[in-house]
Amino acid sequence: MENNRRSFIKKTAAVAIGTSLSGSLTSMSAKSYRNIIGANDRINVAIQGLGRRYFAFIEGIALKPSNARLVYLCDVMPKQLTKAKAKVGEVIDYQPKLESDIQKIFNDKDIDAVFMATPDHWHTPGACMAMEAGQHVYLEKPCSHNPHENELVVAFQKKYNKVVQMGNQQRSSLESIEIINDIHNGIIGEAYKAIAFYINGRGRVPLQEKAAPPDGLNWELFQGPAPRRDYTHDTWNYNWHWYGWDYGTAEMGNNATHELDIARWALDVKFPEYVEVIADKMQYKDDGWEMYDEMEATYKYSNNRIIQWDGISRSGYSKYGRGRGTLIYGTKGTVMVDRRGYELYDLKGKLIKEKKSGGNEGGVALGGGGNLTTRHVVNFFNAIRGKEKLTSPIEVGAISQMLTHYANIAYRINKGFDVDEKSGKMYDREAMKLWSREYEPGWEPKL
Predict the structure, then answer these.
(1) Among residues 367, 365, 400, which one has the least CA distance to residue 198?
(2) Contact present, 341 and 355 (Cβ < 8 Å)
(3) Do β-strands 334-338 and 68-74 pair in parallel, antiparallel, or remain unpaired?
(4) Per-residue pLDDT tens digits for 93-102
(5) Cα separation of 201 and 38, whole Å?
(6) Identical fold at 2-171 and 173-363+396-432?
(7) Which tens digits make up the pLDDT trace of 59-92?
(8) Cα 347 from chain centroid?
(9) What are the structural domain ranges in the chain?
(10) Cβ(111)–Cβ(44) under 8 Å?
(11) Is the pLDDT at 267 greater than 70, yes or no?
């Protein structure tokens, strides 16, 4: 019966989506719609990780044409489950199950897809476990904690033939798609340089102090694939990003993923031939932030193209006139593109075309969501049903993710290095020592 339902998803989606777009179902309740379409076409989903990102998925899940059902909310912190249940209840008219152990979701054969929105160190291991269990994956950025995991998540996708959408949602921006197609067709001549940037005014971070885990937190499961250590104050609540390399990937994995992906897409390049960085901790030098908070990274390509990253986490002056975006330079003009749209300039700096989405997903605010994530989620469901190509398939997203890993490694070894443009491997023994990481025994994904 379960195999029949999963097969039926692909066969009936066109009818469901086409009818909805014609407008005849728009006035029906979600409950009535579900009864008409029937359970066979429904995609049953779970969300793992209920921090600042999960609610961005809810609109796409709740849309009538999606015909999806949120079966599980999952988190290692009980109060996150309680809060999420109340918030999700404002949007959907049924109660998802609350679960603290993701393994129980992997073991549930009724689940078709998992949204992975955990801390970074869980992303690839969790995605691999889901694929092995027969589930499709919407994988939040970063798609990997290290280069080795980049290889793993792509290899698992190929082996299990599951739909894996990386959560770099600007790939679903109609304006970004339009202008990058125009760039590829020569609208600014030969595109030769891109500057990706992110600027934020993050504040102080508490010093790490050994403490008992907060009430209810499953610290063992939070650590998951990471080597075991004692809990330190406030690690679980976002600060894992900045407390060393066990869980986070610094600002590169946290935010540079998005803009570097746009830069690479616009220049139509893959792996660079050389990487170097200038990076340091410049603000609040006595606080608990353990890695750089400012970084300039340079990626040189053999075809005379170059990508630069300009990331400032804790000094909020917007020198580009906005908090995040990507500048693309060509021989005949320049494009500024971000999540809200694009601006096209000629060689004299005159604005010759501008297009804005009017959407609600931009800037540097934590968490949230908006029209781009919703479109990305809907594309994920349609790809599962075989009706659309994925907007950001994992094998494409993983290449962009490598740019962030290169920069973090260059920072950690304090030098630049050459890269094999075909394989992505680094021509530096010290750098290659950071290709993977230490895993808690039994947790490293194995094919």
Answers:
(1) 365
(2) yes
(3) unpaired
(4) 999 999 999 9
(5) 48
(6) no
(7) 999 999 999 999 999 999 999 999 999 999 999 9
(8) 34
(9) 2-171, 173-363+396-432
(10) yes
(11) yes
Q: If you ran DSSP here, which 8-state letter would residue 256 be given?
A: I
Cα dihedral 195/196/201/207 (nearest 10): -120
Q: Which of 316, 315, 340 is nearest to 326 (CA)?
A: 340
3-state secondary structure 330-387: ECCCEEEEECCEEEEECCCCCEEEEEECCCCCCCCCCCCCCHHHHHHHHHHHHHHCCC
| Positions of E strands within 213-346 | 274-280, 294-300, 306-312, 324-330, 334-338, 341-345
Q: Which one-letter amino acid corresponds to residue 78?
A: P
d(CA 332, CA 322): 24
CB 258 within 8 A of CB 141: yes
Report whether pLDDT(368) > 60: no
Fold for the domain defined by 173-363+396-432: Dihydrodipicolinate Reductase; domain 2 (3.30.360)
Asked if 48 and 105 touch (Cβ cutoff 8 Å), the reply is yes
pLDDT at 359: 64
Query: Which tokens in the block code for residue 425?
Result: 């491997």
Q: What homologous superfamily does CATH list for 2-171?
A: NAD(P)-binding Rossmann-like Domain (3.40.50.720)
CA distance 342 to 390: 23
Give the phi and the psi of residue 369 in degrees, each rounded to 5: 175, -165
Q: The tokens of 274 are what?
A: 């050389």
pLDDT for residue 299 is more than 80 = yes
Q: Alpha-carbon Rg of the chain, whole angstroms?
A: 22
The sign of the CA dihedral 395, 396, 400, 406 is positive
Residue 286's Cβ-side half-sphere holds a number of Cα atoms within 13 Å equal to 0
Tokens 């992975």, residue located: 116
Render 65-82 in DSSP notation, one character per residue.
GG-EEEEEEE-SSHHHHH
What's the mean pLDDT in 213-238? 96
- Per-residue confidence at 32, pLDDT binned at 50, 70, 90? very low
Contact 328, 335 (CB under 8 A): yes
